[in-house]
TrEMBL record:
Chain ranges of the DAGKc domain: 152-291
Top-level lineage group: Eukaryota
One Gene Ontology term from the biological process aspect of the record: sphingosine biosynthetic process
Protein name from the UniProt record: DAGKc domain-containing protein
PANTHER family according to UniProt: ACYLGLYCEROL KINASE, MITOCHONDRIAL (PTHR12358:SF31), SPHINGOSINE KINASE (PTHR12358)
Species of provenance: Penicillium capsulatum
Gene Ontology annotations for the cellular component aspect, listed alphabetically: cytoplasm; membrane
Record GO terms (molecular function): ATP binding; lipid kinase activity
Keywords: ATP-binding, Kinase, Nucleotide-binding, Transferase
InterPro entries (alphabetical): ATP-NAD_kinase_N, Diacylglycerol_kinase_cat_dom, DUF7493, Lipid_Phosphate_FormReg, NAD/diacylglycerol_kinase_sf, YegS/DAGK_C
Length: 523
């Protein structure tokens, strides 16, 4: 998979005989396998095309007050339109948001790249006469079938905005970049701001799970963490987590969920990916500490990563550099984080992990698997029992005890990308029933440590001999020190023993591919 922002594989479909439509006497609209081809004396009104609109107009949502920006891209970025008048355009079907026949016009609404990092909404309008209507309506259905494939149209979205997420601009980001895309795709929107820490959990606990298709958080990873936990705390937790898909519009400082599921850090491109998003089962991890149980969707960490993230609050003024600075300081000091660790290991050989990953990619998908999963959850709606009990139970005898006296980094990942350009767990899969655990000794040389950091963006990290990787179903970690940091999805939890267990396919997200993350797999 690539992490390209705006393009995606549109649904495959053969070219039909009736896939061409002639409108406005001399404009032909042809449905290809991945694009809508427009040939005729017409032009596009997107900011990149210089020709004034003949049968087109630019649509922006009520809140979208962005000025039209000039770009050198052609329509949908596919054709460069220097020649005038332009007679051929291609619109990527993935970008088509809606199409309809109103009393006198065919209107096709779509997203067009407005800058490198954004799309905005544009529409084509063609006059239609009464006798053409039936044929045009049938063609519109074909267009929408191809444009949406298996993605649900007109999704009902509960939008939760954290007004304090990231730089405190989540609401304006939503209004400016996402709302126009959702409106053009005719999604049903119910927008609510969170008023305090924990509010998203309470909302998820009480939400009518039949009234929405997805919950969209405009925040960082903190709000989805709360929503998963709120859904999981309901008496019908399993049903709620199966029915409602989650998605994240990247409005926080850490937006791991968006990078993994939607492959972008752009709010408008993520909104388009949500409109076209496919329901995807997601393994969740249940974490127990003394007397508590919570759900994790992203990661659990102990050691240098948790310490550099949560233990650097005093240097918040540094912004995003805070983590890197904290990390380097600890690395130079060759800090160790002694602990006891036991893992229920499934695969501990790197080549076998790569094999597991590539087998998963080629595995045939069971038809109707998602529908069956939801039906099963409706039949037994309560949360599934933990297979290995809690951290307070006896340690199972078949778990591998891993020496932890010189632990440097313990990092368990449920998704591949932890933040932009940090594909820490390349072999992670949304629904293989396994978590990926990386352990690194704290006493390795500084040179090796620096090399490891540099190898993360290039993908060389996975194969480094000092990086131990296991696929596992559970683990227990007991810290030896009295004080320190444990991070669950970037949130601090008490510094005490914890046990984590994967719960296969318990949660649901909207993703671009429907089965893998938008990250490069292991090489
Ligand atoms: N109205 C509110 N006031 C204060 N805190 C809130 C409010 N709404 C949500 N929160 C809390 O803000 C926390 C951080 O949220 P989020 O992940 O959206 O942003 P972020 O910028 O990525 O955060 P961080 O930098 O802390 O990781 C969440 O744990 C959530 O509970």
């Amino acid at each position: 998979m690539s992490s390209t922002d705006s393009s995606a594989k549109p649904p495959e479909a053969p070219l039909q005989h009736d896939s061409s439509l002639t409108v406005d006497k001399q404009v032909s609209l042809t449905l290809g396998s991945d694009s809508l081809l427009i040939v005729g004396k017409t032009s596009c009104s997107c900011p990149s095309c210089a020709q004034p609109p003949v049968a087109l107009s630019v649509l922006t949502g009520p809140e979208d007050d962005r000025p039209a920006r000039k770009s050198n891209r052609g329509c949908c970025g596919l054709f460069k339109s220097k020649a005038k008048p332009k007679t051929t355009h291609a619109i990527c079907l993935y970008n088509v948001l809606d199409a309809e026949v109103n009393p006198s016009n065919l209107v096709i609404t779509y997203a067009v790249p407005s800058t490198k990092d954004d799309v905005s909404v544009t529409a084509l309008h063609y006059p239609i006469v009464e006798k053409e209507k039936l044929a045009v309506e049938a063609w519109v259905q074909q267009l929408l079938n191809l444009a949406y494939g298996n993605a649900q149209r007109r999704k009902r979205l509960k939008i939760l905005v954290n007004p304090f997420g990231g730089k405190g601009t989540a609401l304006s980001l939503y209004q400016r970049y996402a709302a126009p895309v959702f409106a053009a795709a005719r999604c049903h929107l119910d927008v609510q701001s969170t008023e305090r820490r924990g509010h998203a959990t309470d909302i998820a606990k009480q939400l009518d799970i039949n009234a929405y298709d997805a919950i969209v958080c405009c925040s960082g990873d903190g709000l989805p963490y709360e929503v998963f936990n709120g859904l999981g705390q309901r008496t019908n937790g399993r049903e709620a987590l199966a029915k409602l898909a989650l998605a994240l519009l990247p409005c926080g400082s850490g937006n791991g969920m968006t990078w993994n599921c939607l492959g972008t850090g752009s709010v408008s491109i993520a909104a388009l990916a949500i409109v076209k998003g496919l329901r995807t089962p997601l393994d969740l991890v249940s974490v127990t500490q003394k007397g508590t149980q919570s759900l994790s969707f992203l990661s659990q960490s102990f050691g240098i990563v948790a310490d550099s993230d949560l233990g650097t609050d005093h240097i918040r003024w540094m912004g995003a550099q805070r983590f890197t600075y904290g990390f380097l300081v600890r690395l130079m000091q060759r800090t160790i984080y002694p602990c006891e660790l036991a893992i229920k290991v499934d695969i501990d050989d790197k080549e076998a992990i790569k094999e597991h990953y590539s087998t998963f990619l080629t595995r045939e998908e069971e038809p109707d698997a998602d529908r069956k999963r939801v039906e099963d959850a409706q039949q037994s709606p309560g949360m599934p029992k933990l297979q290995y009990g809690t951290v307070e139970d006896e340690l199972p005898t078949d778990w591998e005890v891993v020496p932890g006296e010189t632990m440097g980094n313990f990092y368990a990942g449920n998704m591949a990308i932890m933040s932009k350009d940090t594909n820490f767990f390349p072999a992670s899969l949304p629904n293989d029933g396994l978590m990926d655990i990386v352990t690194i000794e704290g006493n390795i040389s500084r040179v090796t440590s620096i090399k490891m950091m540099n190898e993360i963006p290039t993908g060389g990290f996975f194969d480094m001999p000092d990086v131990k990787i296991r696929k596992a179903t559970a683990f227990r970690l007991v810290p030896h020190e009295k004080e320190g940091y444990i991070s669950i999805d970037g949130e601090p939890v008490p510094f005490e023993s914890f046990q984590a267990e994967i719960q296969p396919g318990l949660g649901t997200v909207l993703s671009k591919s429907g089965r893998v993350y938008e990250a490069d797999g292991p090489r």
